[in-house]
């Protein structure tokens, strides 16, 4: 059952991406995690996570190297969502880029990582008009963790 959109999701989107409006706002199925996102055409993925007080900007190519555009290591909270983007783009669900705010009820650990990653995967599926369920998205994320060597879920705050 979908809950009401958290107010901090919308206020955070306005803070990170002033004067822009998200195209889609989705709750990750099975998680208390949300994404508010707007596709872009600049080849950049900008993920903001107010729960972690951070933002990561990367391209498909830099994400494959687990790096941001400025050649720094992606923050732990962004590693699994970035790996999901790489996997879906490689599987033909190309996205030119997007700006997104991600929030989750859990502040760390597997549910946090899976919640954020499931929200990202749901957004990309929705952009492509493809259906999804919690089961299919979790299977995708499990596969990404195994085949792309994504890290174990973070325990950092």
Q: Outline, from the CA principal axes?
A: globular
* CATH topology (fold) name: Ribosomal Protein S5, domain 2
Major sheet details = 5 strands, mixed
Beta-strand level of the residues, as a percent range?
A: 15-25%
- Derived from helix and strand composition plus strand pairing, the structural class reads alpha+beta
**Beta strands, count:** 5
Tell me what you see in this structure.
The protein has 157 residues and is of the alpha+beta class. The chain is built from five helices and five strands, in the order H-E-E-E-E-H-H-E-H-H. The protein has a single domain, classed as Ribosomal Protein S5, domain 2 (2-Layer Sandwich). Strands 1-2-5-3-4 form a five-stranded mixed beta sheet, sandwiched between helices. Helix 3 runs parallel beside helix 4. The longest helix is centred in the last third of the chain and has 18 residues. The protein is globular.
């Amino acid at each position: 059952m979908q809950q009401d959109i958290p107010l901090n999701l919308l206020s955070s989107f306005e803070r990170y991406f002033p004067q822009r409006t998200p195209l889609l706002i989705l709750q990750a199925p099975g998680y208390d995690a949300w994404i508010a996102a707007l596709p872009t055409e600049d080849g950049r993925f900008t993920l903001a996570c107010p729960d972690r007080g951070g933002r990561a900007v990367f391209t498909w190519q830099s994400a494959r190297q687990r790096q941001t555009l400025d050649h720094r290591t992606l923050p732990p909270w962004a590693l699994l969502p970035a790996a999901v983007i790489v996997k879906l783009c490689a599987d033909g669900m190309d996205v030119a880029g997007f700006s997104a705010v991600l929030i989750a009820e859990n502040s760390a650990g597997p549910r946090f990582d899976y919640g954020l990653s499931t929200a990202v995967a749901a957004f990309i599926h929705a952009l492509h008009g493809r259906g999804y369920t919690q089961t299919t998205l979790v299977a995708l994320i499990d596969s990404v963790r195994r085949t792309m060597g994504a890290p174990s879920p973070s325990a950092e705050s």
